[in-house]
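Please check this one:

***
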Amino acid sequence: MKTIFRWMVTVFAGMIPLASLAQSDPGPATGGGINRNYDDGYVYVDSIGDSFGYTSYWGYQNASQIQGDFLVFHSESSLDANTIQVITDTYDLGNLLTPPPAPYSGTFSGPGPTIPDSPFSRSIEDIAVPEPSSAIMLSLGTFILVSMVFVKMPKRCLV
């Protein structure tokens, strides 16, 4: 038996950038057989090693990423304090009649729809970010809200 002190009811809310939870790495612009991780999805090598330049181990987050017969992925990174670089890789979905609805996550072992394992095209855009003021700081990243609630516990609890 352990003694547990009384907790005051407290709510803590914080914002954590998603970029700190997962590292985006789109890999080189060309070449297959490479794991590519984006801010809004992934294209990884599957269990059969991306046979004939295709993989079933891919996933995306938003329906807006489907643009006609193409699927677009984005990767943001900071070049310096004033510049964000956005890489947009486009994959040809010509072999899929209807892509699975978002969000979609393929698996390493499949089975599932296949896409090319290398981007059809890549664009790179450098975006100037205004200097943050001391009163307000802006961020282009995506955030999640984390909240923890501590509840009042009895003086003694069995653990």
About this structure: The chain has one domain: 24-137.
